[in-house]
Amino acid sequence: MTMLVDVNAVRALLDKEGCGSFIGGIESLIEQTADRLAEAYRRWDEFAKGSRIGIHSVRGDIELMPVADHHYYAFKYVTGFPQNPERNLPNVMAFGALSSVETGKPLFLCELAIATAIRTAAMSALVARHLAREDSRSMAIIGCGAQCDFQILAFNALLGIEKFYLYDVDAAAMNKVVENLSEGEIEFVLPDRSINDSQASIRKVLERHPDIVTTVTADKTNATILTADMIRPGMHINAVGGDAPGKTELDKKILELEHARVVVEFEEQTRAEGEVQQMPPDFPVIEFHEIIRGIKPGRENSRQVTIHDSVGFALSDYAVLRLLYDKTQQYKLGTVVDLVPSETPDVKNLFRKVRRGDNEIGLSCDSPHAAGTRPLRYFRG
Ligand SMILES: NC(=O)c1ccc[n+]([C@@H]2O[C@H](COP(=O)([O-])OP(=O)(O)OC[C@H]3O[C@@H](n4cnc5c(N)ncnc54)[C@H](O)[C@@H]3O)[C@@H](O)[C@H]2O)c1
Predict the structure, then answer these.
(1) Which among 61, 69, 149, 243 is annotated as catalytic?
(2) Top mutation candidate among 51, 83, 91, 219 for ligand 1, by most atoms within 8 Å of CB
(3) If you measure from the C-alpha of residue 50 to the centroid of ligand 1, how many angstroms do you get, rounded to a whole number?
(4) How far, in Å, from the CA of 366 to the mean position of ligand 1?
(5) Are 109 and 2 contacting, i.e. CB atoms less than 8 angstroms apart?
(6) Interval between CA 162 and ligand 1 midpoint (Å)
(7) What is the Å distance from ligand 1's center to 143 Cα?
(8) Which of 218, 214, 8, 7 is nearest to 92 (CA)?
(9) Which helix (H) or strand (E) holds 22?
């Protein structure tokens, strides 16, 4: 049997985790996910990994992300369709599974769109702990869609960031964030609405000298959300939205800034999908596991510009899937389903598993294959 966890079960889990406080539930899961991420990235060498398999079309991307250690195999199916919100559909939709490496049995099938937002935010904040200046107190966030609220909660909970400068081409998206997070102590600064040009608006936001800048926009193009002249010494850039071939957010001159330190999840995948797809193949990058394992330093000085070129790696989904599997068992959430015919008295008799019992009533059927209408023929010898 396999445990199935859908959106309703995740909602119930957030309720339990936050003891009734929705924001408290998300913060709790973000903090625990960050711990699980740290643990997984420290165990880097124990995982069989590879770049995700993407089907890229003009409108969007559908990606399959597998990874495994000696105990669990995990995969995520995830979409990126930037125009989907116009059709009243989310841009990022995801689900995934955990199975036993010993037997291949699927153990856990789970909604992962909410978990993706949680793990991406937790990973952003975890990496920023090693790269952002310790005295960082403010963050600009460009792109206020589905991921944004989670990013804010993660940077608030894990780094103590208290002040957020928001910008989105869509004013309703910014208002949504302020409304969703109005309960807390977080201070929001909205952009000057008199400026109509998006580049000029972003420049104005960055002139307020945020310590950290998160870009989390969605457009299937090589966009230029940030240019090098907007970046100040000591800034940390958390570039989240550029995550597919031909989909970037940073002007490449930012990556070329003297002594800039670029940190990625998994080099092979990020070279194809991240901001560094704009750079030559020998452009220097550091994988995050090297920092968390103490092999290489994080930030080296207070004037260094640090860049987290985030694309989303399967190991992060493994970490959040393991957490959700543990949590849903602890709280007895989800539904047990017969996803594959796994438990049967005679495993070689697959017929028996699916055949209707003598006492069960079948549906009436016009098929030429229906019982009684088609003579059974068999040959012997
Ligand atoms: N790196 C990762 O691990 C990871 C994980 C999840 C999502 N993502 C990516 O993050 C991005 C955001 O995801 P989402 O779920 O929030 O998408 P979304 O569609 O809900 O939100 C995107 C927002 O960006 C805004 N936007 C687009 N162009 C802009 C511009 N030039 N300036 C300012 N705002 C602009 C849109 O108005 C929208 O509000 C997507 O590109 C997605 O693929 C990356």
Answers:
(1) 243
(2) 91
(3) 25
(4) 50
(5) yes
(6) 22
(7) 6
(8) 218
(9) helix 22-42
Task: Reduce the DSSP state of residue 165 to 3 states and report it.
Answer: strand
Q: What is the pLDDT of residue 343?
A: 74
Work out which ligand 1 atom sits closest to the CA atom of 78. Answer: 6
143 lines ligand 1 (CB under 6 A): yes
63 lines ligand 1 (CB under 6 A): no
CB 145 less than 6 A from any atom of ligand 1:
yes
- For residue 113, give the amino acid letter: A
pLDDT band at 361 (very low <50, low <70, confident <90, very high): low
Does position 358 have pLDDT exceeding 80, yes or no? no
Topology of domain 133-312 in CATH is Rossmann fold (3.40.50)
Q: Is the pLDDT of residue 365 over 90?
A: no
Rounded distance from Cα 100 to ligand 1 centre (Å) = 34
**What pLDDT, in 10s, does the model give residues 109-151?**
999 999 999 999 999 999 999 999 999 999 999 999 999 999 9
Higher pLDDT, 308 or 375: 308
pLDDT digits (tens, 9 = 90+) for 236-260: 999 999 999 999 999 999 999 998 9
**305: nearest Cα among 233, 240, 238, 255:** 233
CB-based burial of residue 115 (10 Å sphere; 0-12 exposed, 13-18 middle, 19+ buried)? buried
Atom of ligand 1 nearest to the CA of 145: 21
Give one DSSP letter per residue of 46-78, joined into a string.
G-B--PPEEEE-SS-EEEEEEEE-SSEEEEEEE
Among 33-37, 351-355, 375-379, which stretch is predicted with the lowest mean pLDDT? 375-379
Q: Are strands 306-309 and 261-264 parallel, antiparallel or unpaired?
A: parallel
Q: Is the pTM of this model over 0.90?
A: yes
What pLDDT digit, counting tens, does each position of 312-327 carry?
Answer: 999 999 999 999 999 9
* Pocket perturbation via mutation, ligand 1, pick of 30, 123, 147 by most ligand atoms within 8 A of CB: 147
pLDDT-derived band at 374 (thresholds 50, 70, 90) equals low
Told to judge if 243 belongs to the known catalytic residues of this protein, a careful annotator would answer yes
206 touches ligand 1 (CB under 6 Å) = no
CATH pick for 2-114+317-337 out of 3.65.10.10, 2.60.120.200, 3.40.50.2000, 3.30.1780.10: 3.30.1780.10
